[in-house]
Write a structure and sequence with these properties.
four-stranded antiparallel beta sheet, Nitroreductase, alpha+beta, Nitroreductase-like, oxidoreductase, NADH Oxidase
Length: 216
């Protein structure tokens, strides 16, 4: 499999959330997904527990069912007034960007079930379920690996997006896919070849607006 000739900085700054540009018609080989997940397994985890699990959904009917839950959750998210497209309306420049994000988010919600591969990153929590209070240590043992998967996919010509809206129906998706009760889902990553040629770094807030050295 061809690896894109990207420097580390290029890989990190051009791995974008791909929604409208996912190729919904081109199959993605399972071996390619496995290759990306092998990279993901090199990520750090708390205590080196490696408690992650990866649900890879390729069956058309199962993808359609997961997509239906996702679309239902996205509809509630949109109607809440807190969706991406509704944010920063007092800033004309940023509002325009947010509208584009909102439009692409809606497109993905309508087509989630058509994406060739859905990867759900999960983590084992044991019989006690999610710990009370701060859960950063738990999710910090899954999210770096999920991001590594997305970086590996980008380097191999695949587009991905970080999504969590399906978690409003986590128990229903777990039942659908046979995920055990002591395993919790953390992220849904639609995966497909992408359309077009290039991705560029996104416009972000200036570092000095969010940087705090020694004291806030």
């Amino acid at each position: 499999m061809t690896i894109e000739p990207l420097t580390p900085d290029e890989l990190l700054t051009t791995t974008r959330s791909v929604r409208k540009r996912l190729d919904l018609t081109r199959p993605v080989p399972l071996e390619l997904v496995r290759e990306c997940l092998e990279i993901a397994l090199q990520a750090p985890s708390g205590g080196n527990r490696q408690a992650w699990h990866w649900m890879v959904v390729t069956d058309p009917e199962l993808r359609k069912a997961v997509g239906s839950y996702y679309e239902r959750s996205h509809q509630a998210y949109f109607e809440s007034g807190s969706s991406a497209g509704a944010l920063f309306q007092d800033d004309p420049v940023r509002a325009a960007q947010q509208r584009r994000v909102g439009e692409s988010s809606l497109y993905l919600a309508e087509h989630m079930g058509d994406v060739p591969v859905l990867v759900i990153g999960c983590i084992a929590v044991g019989d006690g379920g999610l710990p009370p209070g701060n859960q950063a240590g738990l999710w910090g043992s899954l999210l770096p690996a999920a991001w590594s998967y997305m970086l590996a996919a980008r380097a191999r010509g695949l587009g991905t997006a970080w999504t969590t809206l399906h978690l409003a129906y986590e128990s229903e998706v777990a039942e659908l896919l046979g995920i055990p009760g002591d395993v919790r889902q953390g992220v849904l990553i639609p995966t497909a070849y992408y359309l077009g040629e290039t991705f560029a770094p996104a416009k972000r807030q200036p570092l000095d607006e969010v940087l705090h050295v020694d004291r806030w």
